[in-house]
Amino acid sequence: MNASIASSSPGYDPGVFNVRAAWDLDRSSQAARITFAGIYAGISLMVLPWPVALAWIAAVLVWEGVSTPFANWAISTLSNQTAINVYAACNAFGSGIFHTIALLTLATATPLGIAIGATWLGGSFMNNFVYFGEHRKLLWSCLTPGILAAILGPQLAHGPSIQATVISALVLIGLVAARGFSIDHQVLLRRLGERQSALAEIEGKLSVAVDASGDGLFEVDLAARHSVVSANWAAMLGYAAEEMVNPDIFSFVHPDDHTFVREEYAAHFRGETSHTSSEQRMLCKDGSYKWVLARAKLVSRTPDGAPWRLVGTTIDISARKALEHQLEAARDAAEQANEAKSAFVANMSHEIRTPLNGVIGITGTLARTSLTPSQRDMVGLVQSSAQVLERLLSDILDQSKLESGAFELQSGAFDLRQSVEAASELLRSRADEKGLGFRITYAEAADGVFEGDAVRLRQIVANLASNAIKFTETGEVRIAVDVGEAGADDGGATVTIAVIDSGIGFDGETSERLFGRFVQADGSISRRFGGTGLGLAISRALAELMQGTLTAQSLPGAGSVFTLNLPMRRTMSLAQYRARIQDVADDDALSAPSGLEGLRVLLAEDHPTNQRVVQLILEPLGVNLTIVGDGHEAIEAFRQDRFDIVLMDMQMPVVDGLAATREIRQWEAEAGRARTPIAMLTANALDAHRVMAAEAGADHHIAKPITPQSLLSGIVATLAGDEEPAADAPDDLLAAAG
Fold first, then answer.
1. Where would I find the H helices in 108-161?
2. pLDDT confidence band for 404 (50 / 70 / 90)
């Protein structure tokens, strides 16, 4: 039974058969051949005399001992082809010796003897086809002795007979079956080889790809605490591959990242994640730390379910992390710059509003005195310039608040028609000055009380109408108001306000960028018409804050239409509103007393100009005015006398207005005195300042620069306890102030 030549693989070429390799394999299986021969010799004693069995096993041992040196000599001295022929002859002779046991057992004509011979021959045929199936000479040198034994054995037992022929045929059928098995085996080996080649190719490509990517690979035996890492993994941390023999990869993780990494792996081991993914710092050979992205997956568990084998990759993300840190630093710097800008804008607002307050207040008072026509014209120019400056300042403040996200809407109930009229009233005179028509049209449903920010609605309408008048030379400006009912039970509706003009218009490209900050239709517009380009940007931002839209349609030379759509809710039905209007047609909710004569007013203001402005406005009304220069003096004056109202500046030396207001409220509570109305008279016009004033105990907020109208309206509203000031002071008060 020569089962030695395993080197005869599929596709073998006999001309280049490696005899030395075949013989080396033959010697490696020598002990197995002798062992099987000994087993069959022992079994054959049941059907053969012991001298015969002993002689056969002795012949096997002698052959194995003699064939080895002979084969070594032949292989080392003869040519390859001659050595193949000699090797085939040796296999034929040796096969004859080994198959003698089959011949002898078949010749006994006993059932056991036939079984011994048949199994021996079947195993031999199978072995020969597996190892020599594709080398004909070697195959037939091994098969021929077995075939002769299968034919002669039954003939010796039964003579030429049908019985002997049947036994031989049955044994040789095993030869055919062995041939079929060997063919299947060869096909299987070929397919296995092809798949192994394909797998090796894929592994090679994957290895090249991983090496090219620079990613590191690692595998961890969690049970044995054994790790294997790739050369890239070691190089990533500055080590040579030979320095990383069974490393504890978790020991390289930065101490501050240990908890996070262990929690990540624990969650994966519990089945909560499909794989781990963690950005962590790992210790390099030079002592520094490097950021890596580590991904890993548990690929097997122990029989008791504990985590066992973990496979993963690491990617160097140091460059990305450095960029992130730079971006974070840049973001922090930008935020700090934005905060500094906001603080600067707020401070500049206060500083600009203080002298502007003097200009507007004094010119407003001066305009109501006896003036010559030329003097009145000059005062009018100063007033209009001051109003432009105030508008510019308000736009800058609004834009700053919108950019910082600190802008807050003040929602409340308001009358839609009254708000639109109030926003438009001041613009009628401007339209008249240019000889333009100016009208407001209301749809049938454009009445009622709605929930929203009336102040910002008026601001948008005023911005749009002001722009329309500015860019219209002839024709008219019209404001069209409509309300579309949403049909919902909660009073939902859509307020649509369109501002239509017959002005210069603009093209489609301009309409796309017109709502940007500091944008005008073109450079010449800025010089011809003036303006900062903030109005439309602020208006659109306000519309979006109110969940609405602001759009524009225009053609050059054909006028423009700006349309504001705002979703709002009616606080009462349209029928209820109209019935109520009939009942209170003559009732002015914002009316004030006919005069303020004898009103005791405490003014806390550190700036002499502002003191004089308030004095010029209030003294003609017969107001009893007490003026102090800081918060400490205001507290002392309040304790020593009684006042009907306190006008408190927010920023003052010694004690500021907020601290003074808190002190006054505390003293009132301790003294059991009734609460005195306090209005913050200040240039700090941000929403945060209003909140701070209210928290300190102020009842109202009057923003600088003040006019006679705004100051008197603020006083009236503060005395009445209103949350919002009246749009204008009563005419009798203004007349008295003039």
1. 111-132, 136-158
2. low
Q: Are 37 and 60 contacting, i.e. CB atoms less than 8 angstroms apart?
A: yes
Q: What is the DSSP letter of 321?
A: H
Report pTM: 0.42
Residue of higher predicted confidence among 537 and 519? 537
Q: Is the dihedral of CA 616, 618, 621, 622 positive or negative?
A: negative
Give the CA count within 13 Å in the CB-facing half-sphere of 343. Answer: 6
- Phi, psi dihedral angles at 277 (to 5 degrees): -150, 110
CB-count exposure of residue 724 (10 Å: 0-12, 13-18, 19+): middle
Contact 342, 404 (CB under 8 A): yes
Instruction: Give the single-character DSSP code of 315.
Output: E
For 554: left if phi > 0, alpha if psi spans -120 to 50, otherwise beta; the answer is beta
pLDDT at position 13 is 43
CB count in 10 Å sphere of residue 731: 8
Q: Are 47 and 26 in contact (CB under 8 A)?
A: no
Give the CA-trace dihedral at 106, 107, 110, 112, to 10 degrees: -30
pLDDT at 243 > cutoff 70: yes
Report the 3 state secondary structure along 47-80: CCCHHHHHHHHHHHHHHHHHHHHHHHHHHHHCCH
Q: What is the DSSP-derived secondary structure letter of residue 699?
A: S
> For residue 453, what pLDDT band results from cuts at 50, 70 and 90?
confident
Q: Sheet holding 226-229: strands in order across?
A: 226-229, 216-221, 307-316, 289-301, 276-283
d(CA 230, CA 211): 9
Report how far residue 537's alpha carbon sits from residue 561's, in angstroms, rounded to the nearest whole number.
Answer: 16
Interval 215-225 mean pLDDT: 86
∠ at Cα 390 (525, 714), nearest 5°? 145
- Tell me how far apart the alpha carbons of residues 652 and 646 are, in angstroms, rounded to a whole number: 15
* 530 pLDDT higher than 60: no
Residue 309: both structure tokens together: 């084998």
Tokens in use for 148?
């002769």
Residue 372: exposure state from Cβ atoms within 10 A (0-12, 13-18, ≥19) = exposed
Q: Are 117 and 149 in contact (CB under 8 A)?
A: yes
- The answer to whether 248 touches 227, Cβ cutoff 8 Å, is yes
Q: Tell me what pLDDT residue 451 has.
A: 87
Token pair of 137 as six digits: 């000479």
Q: What integer pLDDT is reported at residue 588 of this predicted model?
A: 40
Q: Is the torsion defined by CA of 698, 702, 708, 712 positive or negative?
A: negative
Give the burial string for 409-445 (b: 16+ CB within 10 Å, else e). Answer: eeeeebbbbebbbbbbeebbebbeeeebebebebeee
Question: How do residues 641-674 score in pLDDT, each as one tens digit?
Answer: 889 999 998 888 888 889 999 999 999 898 888 8
Helix (H, G, I), strand (E, B), or coil: what is residue 338? helix
- Helix (DSSP H) and strand (DSSP E) numbers for the chain: 23, 17
Tokens of 110: 């006993």
Report the relative pairing of strands 560-570 and 492-501 from DSSP bridges.
antiparallel
Angstrom distances, CA of residue 716 to CA of 586, 644, 711, 713, 719 = 20, 12, 9, 5, 5
